[in-house]
Amino acid sequence: MKIKVITSKDEAYKDALFVRKEVFVNEQNVSEELEVDHLEDTATHFVLYDAENQPIGAGRMRPIGDGGKVERVCILSNRRKQGLGDLLMKSMEQEASRLNYPALTLYAQVQAEVFYKKLGYTTTSKEPFIDANILHVAMKKALNQ
Predict the structure, then answer these.
(1) Contact predicate 64/52, CB 8 Å
(2) Predicted model pTM
(3) Cα dihedral 105, 89, 111, 33 in deg (nearest 10)
(4) 58-77: string of b/e by CB count within 10 Å (b at 16+)?
(5) Which runs of consecutive H residues, i.e. helices, occur in the chain?
(6) Could you give the CA distance from residue 128 to residue 10 in angstroms, rounded to a whole number?
(7) What's the pLDDT tens digit per position in 98-133?
């Protein structure tokens, strides 16, 4: 397994979009217009590759007022439940620490809330809310500086 940390200008960005399209557009019926937005160029992108150098996971992180915002975290459906999400999130957190972000914020789909809690994120929204026609909760984690 390896993770590439890239920008939207890198060749590997197409691999991130491939995984995101498979998960969010094809599996979860999110429109492509919502999935790929105007913030792509402001984000750092992460692509997780398997031993055969096939893209199997992706995510992005961008700067916000009090640190970074983690978005578009996904693992292909046939590769879930193998600890790959943990690996991807740890890489994103390491990059956030390198960038001196004091905290990371994310909007988790409600079915992923337990996953993020195990990684040390705390739910900050009082109630779930709809984003891209999917229930989400806001979560946050302070990073060790």
Answers:
(1) no
(2) 0.91
(3) 70
(4) bbbbeeeeebbbbbbbbbbe
(5) 13-20, 32-35, 84-98, 113-118
(6) 35
(7) 999 999 999 999 999 999 999 999 999 999 998 888
